[in-house]
Amino acid sequence: MNPADYDAWYHTARGRWIGETEYALAARALAARPGDSLLDVGCGTGWFTRRAAADGLVATGLDPNPVWLEYARAHSSPALSWVEGDARDLPFADASFDHVLSIAALCFIDDERRAVAEAVRVARRRFAIGWLNRASLLYGQKGRHGGSGAYRGARWHTAREVRALFAGLPVRNLTLRSAIFLPSGTRGAAWLERSLPNVLPWGGMLLATGEKS
């Protein structure tokens, strides 16, 4: 998939609903204030980076793909920063950002544990990292047999596996929430999303949040 087609999905009714729902869950957990700095790890075309910037955050997007970063740069404000880099070896000093965000990106790279440790290292206050949830309807639709479409090659995790990725790291108040219970994006799916509590572990995105200790 090329970056233009990927980004265009977020402008469809379903894509916008999923993106906004995932972002809202992460934003509530981060509780960031305007002017706080945020690193978006595995930013791709920068949709979540731009969304954070729209809330007044000083946002930086990091991705290993220069083509996707160039697309992000060309479709965003000059105020945003874009860095080519590896999530497993972030080119930043310890505690460089108030918050670290990553949505369904680390599940596409090898050694997720190392990437999680790096995200925690560069965070000063809070982090929100989302994975694809194996205990979800979305997995049944898109994740089986190696995945399909944009999900091809991704690893899908259980809540226990996500918690294990943080074992021994300097974090506190680690909490798991989920979103996108019905990935269809219909009116009924939106109603169900508002009705079900995010503590239920069956949404398509499994979000781990916590504080740097």
Structure characteristics:
8-stranded mixed sheet; 213 residues; 8 strands; Rossmann fold; 36% helix; 8 helices; alpha/beta
Q: What is the rounded distance between the termini?
A: 39 Å
Count of extended strands: 8
Task: Enumerate the spans where pLDDT stays under 50 for 5 or more consecutive residues.
Answer: none
The number of helical elements comes to 8
Q: Under the CATH scheme, which architecture would be assigned?
A: 3-Layer(aba) Sandwich
> Taking all residues together, what is the mean pLDDT?
97
Q: Report the helical percentage.
A: 25-40%
The arrangement of helices and strands along the chain is: HHEHEHEEHEHEHEHE
The chain-level structural class is alpha/beta
Number of domains: 1
CATH topology: Rossmann fold
Folded structure, characterized:
36% of the residues lie in helices and 24% in strands. The chain has a single domain (3-212), classed as Vaccinia Virus protein VP39 (Rossmann fold). The chain is built from 8 helices and 8 strands, in the order ααβαβαββαβαβαβαβ. It is globular, with a radius of gyration of 16 Å. The protein is α/β, with parallel strands linked by helices. Strands 1, 2, 3, 4, 5, 6, 7 and 8 form an 8-stranded mixed beta sheet that branches. It starts with a helix and ends with a strand.
What's the arrangement of secondary structure elements?
Layout: H1 3-9, H2 13-30, E1 37-41, H3 47-54, E2 58-63, H4 66-74, E3 81-84, E4 97-103, H5 112-122, E5 123-133, H6 137-143, E6 156-157, H7 159-165, E7 171-179, H8 187-195, E8 205-212
Parallel strand pairs: 1-2, 1-4, 2-3, 4-5, 5-6
Antiparallel strand pairs: 5-8, 7-8
